[in-house]
Amino acid sequence: MSGDITRIHTGSPANLTERFAHRAAHMKQSEIRSLFAVASRPDIVSLAGGMPNLSALPMEMMAEVVGKLVRENGQEALQYGSGQGHPKLREQICEMMALEGISSHPDDVIVTTGSQQALDLISRIFIDPGDVVLVEAPSYVGALGTFAQYEAQVVHVAMDENGLIPAALREAIAATRATGRKIKFLYVIPNYQNPGGVTLSAARRTEILDICRAESIFVVEDNPYGLLGFDGPSPNAMRAEDSENVLYLGSFSKTIVPGFRVGWALVPDALKDKLVIASESSILCPSNFSQLAISGYLSDQPWRDQIASFCGLYQVRRDAMLESLDKYFPQGATWTKPAGGFYVWVTLPPEIDTKALMPKAIVAKVAYVPGTAFYADGLGSWSMRLSYCYPTPERIREGVKSLGRVINTEMELRGISN
Amino acid sequence: MSGDITRIHTGSPANLTERFAHRAAHMKQSEIRSLFAVASRPDIVSLAGGMPNLSALPMEMMAEVVGKLVRENGQEALQYGSGQGHPKLREQICEMMALEGISSHPDDVIVTTGSQQALDLISRIFIDPGDVVLVEAPSYVGALGTFAQYEAQVVHVAMDENGLIPAALREAIAATRATGRKIKFLYVIPNYQNPGGVTLSAARRTEILDICRAESIFVVEDNPYGLLGFDGPSPNAMRAEDSENVLYLGSFSKTIVPGFRVGWALVPDALKDKLVIASESSILCPSNFSQLAISGYLSDQPWRDQIASFCGLYQVRRDAMLESLDKYFPQGATWTKPAGGFYVWVTLPPEIDTKALMPKAIVAKVAYVPGTAFYADGLGSWSMRLSYCYPTPERIREGVKSLGRVINTEMELRGISN
Questions:
Q1: B214: three-class secondary structure by DSSP
Q2: Are B310 and B275 within one domain?
Q3: From the CA of B264, how many Å to the nearest CA of chain A?
Q4: Residues B248 and B329 in one domain
């Protein structure tokens, strides 16, 4: 590298941290992120990350898709594109959503840089500082981080093995309104929830949609895992039942690959223009190359079969995890039984602090995400999220066994009966 | 498409527009965007857009780069990546910035989804509603849109053929502070400015850096066109002279291709963590595929020669435009003489409203961007931006000739001597 500072400057540089906007105080490293450096060490069995497993993806086929794209349509693929997203891909997205009962038009789809960007844009359009967002307890760490940056107050609503509990939602709405705060929307991950691993039942979907209409609260339905069911298909999307009061977020990160960063939002007409303008301000336009690579893959490849093979791969790993949990975890622990997706949520006796336990787990060469990461309010200290998506079944068994040993030792140490 | 709404809903959906955040009122379609639908008709010579010309890019070579990437490194390229960006690419970015005299470390580089995202993130971190951002008069429409969304007040500072005028900067700072408003930063495009086409002289760079230090204002240097000089290299980057008080934004959109959406920010250490966290909240991580495609291209291909051939292509087009302006535009018009980049800024007699003139230009089958698009304060009504980057030299001559005729007719109509 050449070049250097060639001048002695007079005056001091501006103190950047003193100039931060108010919202910058809410930009904090998530617990899950600071973990990744440790969890990615090859000697550690990581049950922490949510990376999809790409071992079942035929790379030669994907290489042909991207090579052909540049050769046959390079002038378009490598150029700037539309802020809303490529029309061809938006059509294909509608076909894909139809698998979950959604009737939609490509005009109402906005392509985003992963569905994380859709979350960011929706927050930007709706959240004033102090506004309340209702979310499941626990919920996706990336959504909590974004809501915090826009200075929302997050109110958690209880779940059980059938997902968000309608009575708890009614209660949370009443309690929030009693304090005079404004509720902006309900954020929900109905299928194979991250981190809960549970699926919202069909009957509850209807009931929750009715509650939200009655209370004039709209629903943000985040559905990255919907097509990854092992025990039959998931219930129809909430958006399939209510096209006017649900903003739907989808993603190709788990059904194809995350490396292209392509997700989307399907929104009511009244929101579309604002969403496109907000996205243009944020990134100008989503990558034409990424969009057309996904589009080419959907056109030319047997993508339904590929999703089926992903499901097979994840099912074997889920089974390995549930079997090992039965075998190695103490009686005082309980966990969810996911019918799809990537995650199991484990609840330990309340005396166990899963964050404090992490260093011992790392010594035992296994990593997980402590439950507190998934709560905006400090709860979750005796829970953990275990991911089965990435390691081999053998490694999963090994990791759960090590972790079981760490937990058992901790319980003995604390005199908790097992 | 299958599936439909199967239930009669009770209650009304939430009224979305009533629930918008305060900032949403500032999310407005830019004039330049609404133009593009018309300007992209094939019968129109578009001197409006800023799309780089990819005709000199060897597509076969690019097809090999992306195919090889998937075959040899697909598991990484198609997976989630680091929020800060890929370490290999960040090293290569530092090598590229060294061409403009910048000494930097890969740890201080954050890869973004185009440099538009860097602008968005910097705005998010620094701008509270009502804060002032100083910008050139005129300035990049995409930056103005982003600053508006974060509810900044934009104060324009005059330029001449040597770029931003230091005395005007001093004056703007004093006048702004006299009203009690807080100045957050100076945003400047020093090379081949968009839309002005002018370049900030080396002496003025130093003077402006000194003013900003003395006034404790930091500088955001946006430099997408810096390597696209026709008449010799541009002066060293401002960041080369002051590593502490300048945030530098770069982009591969004009030097390689825009379709991968890869840009970057080089920032002082105090800002890095916040910027990474804000980016993770916005998009989780930039596309590994896009980054590694750019990285592979930089490693394996003669990219300096490729930039030289882009320069040759743009120089011919600039020459065609300047010659045709001399030939076909009325005496009452003046324009800048860009030494690089994509744009010429034309000033007409003040009686001519370039926005009102657009329909007549479209009838004459030529499009441009009216000057008001580049001002936050409504100025610029007798100016226009002409781009020479995309059309062939023949089409440029044809377009400028038609536009000259439209302007001449308008001047006669208004009784302005020519």
A1: helix
A2: no
A3: 12
A4: no
